[in-house]
Amino acid sequence: MSLQVAFWSVILIWSTTPLAIKWSALGIGPSFAVFSRMAIGLLLCIILLKLFRVPFPLHRKARLAYLAGGLSMFAAMALTYWSSQFVSSGMIAVLFGLSPLLTSLGAALWLKEESLTPPKLLGMVLGVLGLMLVFRGGLDFSEGAVLGVCALLLAVVSQSWGLVWLKRINDDSPPLATTLGILTVSLPLFFCVWWLVDGNVPEQVTPRSAAATLYLGTFGSVLGFALYYYLIKHMDAGRVALITLITPVLALLLGHAFNAEPVLPQVWLGTASIVFGLCMHRWGEQWLNAMNRKRGV
């Protein structure tokens, strides 16, 4: 597969995932929806590993990576699916756009692998400012809305710092094997939540809900991550970073067009602030160095 096809495929998958999460839970509940998604993803991973004869490591680092990723995925997805009852798909996408900033903060505090330079700090401040604007324009403060946003923020933190945890473990297992290991750890947890919260198999499933769950299980849980790892390996980090800049805006447009989700001016301003903060965080030092060279500093 060409890099361009993989690049735009990841953008399309990640932009449509928030809307698919909302659709998948309609009529069947968030706990059964996320459990079904992960079960489909697990079966697909097993088939692909067998088909392409990918090894499934079980050494200590691999087991630690499966545990870290599994716990992180469980917390992030369980909270995201629960919050989808109260917040729009666009809100989900915008808040998850903060992941690079939180990941960088976690890496600086935990791994000590990068310093919090002024451009990075400015990017984080712009991200927080954008978050405040999104809240102001995206919340109606109805019952559950505030709790939904708080749960979503915890989901973003869980995913972001879970990546830092995986980086700290530094396992070199094949990405598809890591995905299978993570799903193997998280699936029993999703089953327990469904069993305790609901425990009933839906008698009727709408075509939209079934299609969204199948889409998330195949594309959202497996193909999207496999392509993302492929891009990280073969494309420079600057271009890969563009994915996190494009997906929140595209997800807002998709939610507005296909789910009639209102997008107020404050939400657009907040999204713009978050996107600019991500740009400053990723390329701010390069811009500053280029300006200094031009001035002969």
Describe the structure.
This protein is mainly α. The protein has one domain. Helices cover 81% and strands 0% of the residues. The protein starts with a helix and ends with a helix.
Short descriptors:
mainly alpha, 11 helices, 297 residues, globular
The span between the termini is 44 Å
Number of helices: 11
Count of folded domains? 1
Q: What is the arithmetic mean of pLDDT?
A: 84
Percent of residues in helices comes to: over 70%
| Structural classification | mainly alpha
Low-confidence blocks of residues: none
Count of DSSP E strands? Answer: 0
- The SSE string, one letter per element, is HHHHHHHHHHH
- Give the overall silhouette: globular
- The percent range for strand residues is under 5%
The biggest sheet amounts to: none
- Output the radius of gyration: 19 Å
Break the fold down into its secondary structure elements and pairings:
Elements lengths: L2 H22 L5 H23 L7 H24 L5 H8 L2 H13 L6 H21 L6 H25 L5 H23 L9 H28 L2 H23 L5 H30 L3
Give the structure's gist in a few sentences.
The chain has 297 residues and is mainly α. The chain is built from eleven helices and no strands. The radius of gyration is 19 Å and the shape is globular.
